[in-house]
Amino acid sequence: MSNTASTPLFACSRCFSRHPFEELSTGEQLCKECRGSFPVVKCTYCRSEFQQTSKSNTSSICKKCEANVKAYGKPTACEYCNIIAAFIGNKCQRCANSERKYGPAVTCEQCKQRCAFDRHDDSKKVEGKLLCWLCTQSLKRALARTKQHLSSSDKHKHRGHKSKSSHKEKRKSDMMKSINASDSSLNDSQPLEKKSKMNPLQGEVDPNSSDHVVAMTQLKETIASLQKKVQQKDNELLSKDKLITELKAQHMNNTQDMRNEMKNKDRLNETKFNLMNTKIQNLLKEVATLSKSAKKNSKGGGASRPALGGAEHSGSGTDSPSTN
Fold it and tell me: Locations of Polar residues compositional bias (predicted)?
């Protein structure tokens, strides 16, 4: 009762019930019951966390994005952070404001994208790393989870240590009784064996430490970025496969057209060749007939010429005496 009276209590901003400050949520100062009935949701556009105000309205869009959608329509992807929150132009409001304040964007050390902004202040870096907004939020959530896990594990260890200490005292009393009853050599070997059985996990590393959880979150984020790259490469390969199939189909069509053209040309050439052969044969026949007729004519002309010569000689013999 004295501890509850000494610790200060703070009222919930919704149900006005009083709770310690650690149990209230950061920002809106809500208790666990109100947080359970009105859960924290990520906005689908700007990816910022907000708490739903009513059970009837279960939309996953914050008030700012709702107003921007009504004013400017649905947003597009930001050219820096790739978040679908660019309502005006090609940049979201967060990246545009940070570019105006801190200059051009630089590459994030976690996701390797050009979406981080150097504030020239090492205190605002997360573990000395220059990260973008999404990576800083995910790393902060991971660190908060590790702190909660470590605090709960410390509480369990403290309770277990108390139970172990009481258990050890009982064992010591039992061991003292056994020492009085049996030899000292046997009694010296037994507690060592029991201690080795009780603590088989001595020297092992605690898997719930913050370093392990941070490394796990970094690995998960790298896996997610690699999966995105693999998806992009798969899409590129699919588009290239489509182009290859289209080019192959076009090549097949072109080859078929060329083959058809070649076949048609061969047919035309064959028909022309046949026509020329028939013409040549006809002309050769005509030449043969003409040569035969010429030979016959030449033979007939040679037989008629000697008869005409004899007639001329007979006429001259008869006419010569009359002149004298």
Answer: 179-190, 315-324
Residue 230 φ/ψ, nearest 5 degrees: -65, -40
Alpha helices, DSSP H, located in the chain: 2-6, 32-37, 63-72, 93-102, 133-181, 184-198, 210-323
pLDDT at 235: 92
Q: 105-145: per-residue pLDDT in tens?
A: 888 888 888 888 888 877 777 777 888 888 888 888 788 77
Tell me if 173 sits within 8 A of 134, measured CB to CB: no
Give the least confident one: 14-28, 87-101, 214-228, 236-250. 14-28
Report whether 45 contacts 85 (CB < 8 A).
yes
CA distance 76 to 96: 14
Q: How far apart are CA 75 and CA 62, in angstroms?
A: 14
Q: Is 222 helix (H, G, I), strand (E, B) or coil?
A: helix
DSSP 251-288: HHHHHHHHHHHHHHHHHHHHHHHHHHHHHHHHHHHHHH
pLDDT digits (tens, 9 = 90+) for 30-68: 777 776 666 677 888 888 877 776 666 667 788 888 888
Which amino acid, residue 237?
L
Structure-token pair, residue 174? 């039992």
Cα–Cα distance, 146 to 133 (Å, whole number): 20
For residue 307, count other CB atoms closer than 10 A to its CB.
Answer: 8
Distance, CA of 87 to CA of 96 (rounded, Å): 11
The confidence score (pLDDT) of residue 275 equals 94
> Is 80 exceeded by the pLDDT of residue 24?
no
Continuous segment of H or E residues that includes residue 75: none
Of all residues in the chain, the percent with pLDDT exceeding 70 is 67
What dihedral do alpha carbons 41, 47, 50, 54 form, nearest 10°? -50
